[in-house]
Design goal:
Blueprint lengths: L3 H8 L3 E2 L4 E2 L6 E7 L2 E6 L9 H13 L7 E5 L12 H6 L4
InterPro entries: Fe-S_Maturation_MIP18 (IPR052339), FSCA_dom_sf (IPR034904), MIP18-like (IPR002744)
Pfam families: FeS_assembly_P
């Protein structure tokens, strides 16, 4: 059974190509629900019209599937709550000029 830590570390490989940072640092990763060997990732995008959304979703599913012991992977895009820059890590805020 995968751990939440393993899932989060895998998600650090998924970058928003427009911002050049991973989805964990950007605060786009909301939750990992792990039931046995099945993983459901809830994530958001910086905006509803983000053109790279489908690519990010594919990458999320790909990197989580690569974790040993993972069965099925589901990803769910949500805008509830909407993403805001406050969700970013302090490092991401500094690098992107929000600090």
């Amino acid at each position: 059974m995968p751990s939440e830590h393993e899932v989060i570390e895998a998600l650090r490989q998924v970058e928003d190509p427009e911002l050049g940072m991973d989805i964990v640092e950007l605060g786009l990763f909301y939750d990992a629900a792990i039931t046995g060997d099945d993983v459901k990732i809830t994530f958001s995008l910086t905006s509803m019209g983000c053109p790279v959304g489908p690519m990010i979703q594919e990458e999320i599913e790909r990197v989580v599937r690569e974790i040993p012991g993972v069965g099925t992977v589901e990803s769910e895009l949500t805008f509830d709550p909407p993403w805001t820059p406050e969700r970013m890590s302090e490092d991401a805020k500094f690098i992107l000029g929000f600090g």
